[in-house]
Specification:
Blueprint (H helix, E strand, L loop, with lengths): L1 H9 L13 H22 L10 H4 L4 H34 L6 H12 L5 H11 L4 H10 L13 H25 L3 H9 L4 H29 L3 H7 L6 H10 L6 H33 L1
Family: Belongs to the binding-protein-dependent transport system permease family. CysTW subfamily.
Subcellular location: Cell membrane
Protein name: Spermidine/putrescine transport system permease protein
Length: about 290
């Protein structure tokens, strides 16, 4: 007993690991540009312009215009996420298991890394210059084939046009997310299923897709959150002609006519909840996929 007491008394405390210094810049960045602004929005959503507590801002979210804006944003985000997931999965499947030339994969991955971050005013200008009423592709289709896509109902400044624009960064993001998951499919699983007499369709239906399903659904949720919070591309492309929540939020905080910052904070709070739930589901599903890949 005395010996144990002496050992405890002479045990020196472990020095603090210097590895924490490497994450200090990230913690400071997250605090200044994520946590504090989010906290400011949450507090502002429950305040009046003079700083008094109120629930009226939350109650005002029940206005028909705001509900319609939320529905429009959710619909666009879901459509772009679904199409981006399907097309991105097909591309990732082609470069991982499609036996394409080796140079295709690094080229596509490099482009995906760049395109997934290409948004805002440059992306809106690129689509206007390409598929606008006087865009390059629009003019080529009319001059060569006599096809006027706008006469057939296409409109870049609409639900379908914004969804198409979002696909430019949604598809590459899906490729970046799904490629590691497809790489995690072990060759032994395919060989074992073949030995047992399973066809290619049976392998994908009973082995590969059940393993990839959490990753696919999680990637869909991430793409949904990615497009739901986009404002620069939508505002630069459509201005105020499309009633989506990000443009309505901008009008409430920065606009001259619809100027109610505290209502804008309440709108932002709703967006934070929706994107937070989407990202939470993505993280949970990604952890489930990681167990199989390991």
């Amino acid at each position: 007993m005395a010996q144990s007491t002496v050992e405890i008394a002479t045990t020196k405390p472990r020095p603090m690991s210097l590895s924490w210094l490497g994450v200090v810049p990230f913690l400071i960045f997250a605090l200044m540009f994520l946590i504090l602004p989010a906290g400011y929005l949450v507090i502002g959503a429950f305040q009046t312009p003079d700083g008094s507590f109120t629930l009226q801002n939350i109650a005002n979210l029940n206005q028909p215009t705001i509900i319609k804006a939320y529905r429009m944003s959710i619909a666009i985000s879901a459509a772009s996420a679904l199409l981006g997931s399907l097309l991105g999965f097909a591309l990732a499947l082609a470069i991982v298991l499609g036996k394409l030339p080796r140079w295709v994969r690094p080229m596509l991955m490099t482009f995906s890394g760049v395109a997934s971050q290409f948004a805002g005013v440059p992306l809106a200008f690129a689509f206007l210059a390409t598929l606008g009423r006087t865009g390059l592709v629009t003019a080529l289709l009319f001059n060569i084939f006599g096809i006027n896509i706008y006469r057939y109902g296409f409109n870049l400044l609409s639900f379908s046009g914004l969804t198409l624009t979002y696909l430019y960064f949604q598809i590459p993001l899906m490729v970046l997310i799904l490629t590691p998951a497809l790489d995690g499919l072990k060759r032994e699983w395919r060989e074992a299923s073949s030995i047992l007499g399973a066809s290619t369709w049976q392998y994908w239906r009973m082995i590969a897709l059940p393993i990839l399903w959490p990753s696919l659904l999680g990637a869909f949720m991430l793409l949904f959150a990615n497009s739901f919070g986009a404002i620069a591309t939508a505002y630069a492309l459509t201005g105020s002609s499309l009633n989506i929540i990000t443009i309505l939020l901008y009008a409430q905080i920065r606009g001259d006519v619809l100027h109610d910052p505290n209502l804008g904070y309440a709108l932002a709070l709703g967006m934070i909840l929706i994107t937070g739930i989407s990202n939470g589901i993505y993280i949970w599903l990604s952890s489930r996929t990681g167990r199989w890949i390991r």
